[in-house]
Each structure stands twice: as structure tokens, then as C-alpha cells.
Design brief:
Blueprint: E1 4-9, H1 17-25, H2 30-33, E2 34-40, H3 42-50, E3 60-63, E4 74-78, H4 93-111, E5 117-120, H5 125-129, H6 138-145, E6 152-157, E7 160-164, H7 171-177, H8 180-196, E8 204-208, H9 223-237, E9 241-246, H10 248-253, E10 262-265, H11 268-279, E11 284-288, E12 293-297, H12 314-338, H13 345-349
Parallel strand pairs: 1-2, 1-5, 2-4, 3-4, 5-12, 7-10, 8-9, 8-10
Antiparallel strand pairs: 6-7, 6-11, 11-12
Helix pairs in contact: 8-9
């Protein structure tokens, strides 16, 4: 298996980004699977590493670019000035600006082909907005940066995948932003991603309703009958196995999320609250629809525990492992479709297709 070049953005250096990065990269499996390149500050890396004696065994290497990365070390591209202050637990100009500088530097090298995959550590959305970032979050920035027509915020764990139609949007604007074509595009993106990124031959997708009881046949709202159901019907006409709309409360209470390959929620909290309740330490945020592979842990900056060495690296580790898996899944899928006679369904999925 090819050893990949893994880019990691530092996120807000006053949050738990460096802590979970360092802890994750101290896992002995990492350097066997990929060559990590952190985009950030060797100063901030060193400050955080000193707080965690259990990570003393990892060796770091300062490089000018991922092209110079050492395969047996943790590489750091210094794209954040040393004059920026590290203040764990505090929202600051330096912390927010450093997150933007890190992201832009990593995306530049990703576009240049110097990186194979990208994992982003968290930043504070309000804080980076004050630095004129211009996007609600990583997802929207990356969709624009790579010229994608659309993208799907896809939260993934071992046994559950949740996609979101409206991403980072105020609840008051959700209903007005829903359209048949918009929902249909997200269903298409999800279906394509399940096939190419996750190796599922015939994905089965659940679509959630917007209103209580999925509108109760129009009694509690018309979005289901006006836009959601027509979108599902159009998806079915295209051969996509999409079902619903399901009332979210009943859907999760009887564990129906495990009976589908993925589910599509209409808005952010509708999908992320149950996902994080069920898979917080293992959850990964993946941006489907991009020409590159990008994942991130499903937690935020956690300023309240920053600098206290209490953060779990499990979500960061899961983000790294998933990015590697998706990269290789895409290669296998593309090879299979280029020459379908050379790869059987058993080879592709590791078992006979159900």
C-alpha cells in the first residue's frame, strides 16, 4: 500500500488542535501508513509537546514544503510567524489568524500535488469571521478553493454516516433554502460518495423530514410534500435507492440509522446532535464532492480544556485513518470502472457484495 503524504492544519493554536495532533501522531501506526506534514508553528508544536511527556518519543523535522518531508518524522511547515502568541484557552487575533494561514498554506500545497490527503484541526468560526475569512467554515472554503459545484458535509463513524443539506446556516433560513434540485444534488453526492469513497456497491439512503412527524401529510408543514418527497422521487428515477422522508425523532429512537448506509438531514443540528451523541469520540467530518480527500475530527476548539492535556485524540486518529481509507478506495473504484473485468466485487469490498 502506497505511503501517503498527509497534510494537517493546526487550526486555532489556542484550542486543543496541537494537543490532539501530537497525541494522534504519537501512535506507532501513523508513520507506517503516511508521512505527516503539519502546517503551522514549530514554536506552538514545541510548547504543546512539552506539556505531554508521553509524546517525547516522536521526532519532528522543520521543512520548507511537503516536498522535503522526512518519511520517519513529524514534519512541520512553518507558515505561522513565531511572533504570534500562544495563549491556550483564549480566543485571540493571533489564534484565529494562525488558523487561516495554516489552512491556506496547506490548500496551496494540496493543489500543487505535494499532499495526497488533508486533515484539518478545528478553528472558531466566529473568530475567523472577524479576520475576514469570508466563509462560514472549512467545508465552504474548500468547495470554493477547489471549484467544486457543490459539496456535502458528511459525518462518518464506523456504523453511521450523516450528511447535511444546508450546512452552516441559521435555522430561520433553512426552510427557504430547501429546493427539489438542492436536495436532489445532495442525494446524488451522497450516493456517489458511498460508492467511490466507501466502496458500497448499492447504497441505501434515508432522507429525514424537516417538520415534526415529517409534516404529518401537510398538517405540520408543507416542505415534505413540496420539495423533499419530489426530490426523493427524482432520485429514484435515476436509480438511487433513497427513502423517506422519515420523522427524525422516531428514526433515531428505534435505531433505524443502522439500517441504511447513510442518512441525509435537512439542517446542521438535526443531523449532528444525534451523531455526536452516538459517536462523538470516533466521529469524523468528511467533505464529499471534492476532487481531493479532506477530513477533520468532529469536535471544536474546546477552549475550556485547552492546555490541560485532557483532550482525546481518538477523533483526530479516526480522521487520519478515514482519509487514508478513502484515498485508497477511490483508486480501487477508479481502476475498477476503468477496466471492470480486472477487479471483482469481492476484491473491491473485501467480501462478496450483499
Amino acid at each position: 500500500m502506497q505511503k501517503l503524504i498527509l497534510g494537517i492544519t493546526q487550526g486555532d493554536m489556542n484550542g486543543i488542535g496541537y494537543e490532539v495532533i501530537i497525541k494522534a501522531l504519537s501512535d506507532a501506526r501513523i508513520l507506517d501508513m503516511c508521512t505527516p506534514v503539519i502546517y503551522g508553528s514549530s514554536k506552538a508544536f514545541g510548547i504543546n509537546k512539552k506539556m505531554m511527556p508521553e509524546t517525547d518519543h516522536i521526532n519532528s523535522n522543520i521543512v520548507a514544503s511537503a516536498s522535503d518531508a522526512h518519511q520517519k518524522r513529524i514534519n512541520i511547515v512553518n507558515c505561522v510567524p513565531d511572533t504570534m502568541q500562544v495563549e491556550p484557552g483564549h480566543i485571540s487575533h493571533d489564534g484565529s489568524l494562525s488558523a487561516i494561514l495554516s489552512l491556506k498554506a496547506a490548500v496551496k500545497e494540496l493543489k500543487e500535488g505535494k499532499l495526497d490527503i488533508l486533515v484539518t484541526a478545528p478553528f472558531n468560526k466566529k473568530a475567523v469571521a472577524q479576520e475576514n475569512f469570508g466563509f462560514p467554515g472549512h467545508t465552504e472554503y474548500l468547495i470554493d478553493a477547489f471549484g467544486a459545484k457543490d459539496g456535502l458535509m458528511f459525518l462518518c463513524a464506523d456504523n453511521m454516516r450523516v450528511g447535511i443539506v444546508t450546512n452552516h446556516l441559521p435555522v430561520a433560513k433553512v426552510s427557504g433554502s430547501l429546493s427539489i434540485e438542492g436536495i436532489l444534488n445532495k442525494i446524488r453526492l451522497m450516493n456517489d460518495s458511498l460508492k467511490r469513497d466507501f466502496g458500497i456497491v448499492k447504497p441505501k439512503i434515508a432522507v429525514l423530514g424537516l417538520n415534526p412527524h415529517a409534516g404529518d401529510n401537510g398538517l405540520l408543514g408543507s416542505e415534505e410534500t413540496d420539495v423533499i418527497i419530489p426530490a426523493i422521487h427524482k432520485a429514484a428515477d435515476e436509480g438511487i435507492m433513497a427513502f423517506g422522508p422519515y420523522p427524525p425523532d422516531g428514526f433515531f429512537s428505534v435505531h433505524m440509522q443502522y439500517e441504511f448506509d447513510a442518512l441525509l438531514a435537512m439542517y446542521h443540528d438535526q443531523g449532528l446532535i444525534p451523531f455526536k451523541c452516538l459517536a462523538f469520540n470516533q466521529g469524523v467530518n468528511f467533505t464529499a464532492g471534492l476532487p481531493v480527500v479532506r477530513t477533520s475530527p468532529d469536535h471544536g476548539t474546546a477552549y475550556d480544556i485547552a492546555g490541560e492535556c485532557k483532550a482525546s485524540p481518538q477523533s483526530m486518529l479516526a480522521a487520519i485513518f478515514l482519509a487514508i481509507d478513502i484515498y485508497h478506495n477511490r483508486i480501487r473504484y477508479d481502476e475498477m470502472n476503468a477496466n471492470p473485468l480486472t477487479i471483482s466485487s469481492k476484491d473491491f469490498r473485501g467480501k462478496e457484495a450483499e
